[in-house]
């Protein structure tokens, strides 16, 4: 029986040729191909600056450091997310404040967010989860009222839009993932975007060991303590070709999402999460809400169909229990609902209609 995977990376002969071109050049570390990848990102997102880094996680950490967030500061985060969103707050020494999500969208609950704000709140890290864009009308109202920074965890949201503006140029800093679960992937990696030159310059220095602007190694000066968060030319080569095909890849995912929506129409046992009003989903993941989710995953596996949970309700995990540097602000009913009911269906660029129909036929049989 043919396996239907959760996702497939877009690896064509053109991608392989680009990687081989880098290997043949001998210039393997970060360099001109990485710059090309960053330029393509800027052109697509329409932001001013883009920095390729080792992962979305390190990008989020660097964003916090660039905003001088650390001990004594509080950062508000959604409970329903992957640990990277929250762990970076502790890594820089700040205090974690966890809030609930909306059970319909799985996005941060804006009312819970506002209730959690204190005079120590320095930033928030909302997540445009699975490609569902955040409501920046609501976020900016809160920002203007309370004066915090917005760092968007846009790990899943390349191509998503709110009010015809792409995710990546609405927060103070946005960070994307290039993990293989994403349809633009470099194996591992991330991209930071911002319109603020001061922040961009600081982060560019920090990811290069704290190096200042220089014309040659003979004039190198290290202006700050930094580290190595560079993305290599080899990795960037994959991203360059994929970014050149991003309109095709994104449109294809939206077509597949429409097919799934049609196939699931009017089924009372399945609920499709809501997309933010005036938003356009990028469908890094196509998710549904069902009962007995874990049993469904096991049964689908018997038909060689890979499905997966959405992500985690992190307040249930030991690392994020309440403590001196972690506060639970309110209850987590929305997060628990999403964790218990969210199922991610397979979706990849060359998925056929027959494969989608097979997935849904078996799903409905199991339900």
List keywords for this structure.
3-stranded antiparallel β-sheet, Aspartate Aminotransferase, domain 2, single chain, 12 helices, globular, 367 residues, alpha/beta, 16 strands, 38% helix
> What is the CATH class designation?
Alpha Beta
Biggest sheet details: 8 strands, mixed
The portion of residues forming beta strands comes to 15-25%
CATH superfamily: Type I PLP-dependent aspartate aminotransferase-like (Major domain)
The total of helices stands at: 12
Question: What is the rounded distance between the termini?
Answer: 21 Å
CATH architecture identity: 3-Layer(aba) Sandwich
Which structural class is indicated by helix and strand composition? alpha/beta
Order of helices and strands: HHEHEEHEHEHEEEEEHHHEEHEEEHEH
CATH topology: Aspartate Aminotransferase, domain 2
Please tell me the total number of domains: 1
Uncertain spans: none
Overall geometry comes to globular
What radius of gyration results from the CA coordinates? 21 Å
Mean pLDDT: 97
Across the major sheet, the strand order is: 1-10-9-6-5-2-4-15
Structure write-up:
With 367 residues, the protein is α/β, with parallel strands linked by helices. The protein has one domain: Type I PLP-dependent aspartate aminotransferase-like (Major domain) (Aspartate Aminotransferase, domain 2, 3-Layer(aba) Sandwich), CATH 3.40.640.10. Helices cover 38% and strands 16% of the residues. An eight-stranded mixed beta sheet has the order 1-10-9-6-5-2-4-15, sandwiched between helices. A three-stranded antiparallel beta sheet has the order 8-7-11, with no helix packed on it. It has a three-stranded antiparallel beta sheet with strand order 12-16-13. A hairpin with a 2-residue loop joins strand 7 (161-162) and strand 8 (165-166). Helix 2 (32-45) runs parallel beside helix 8 (233-244).
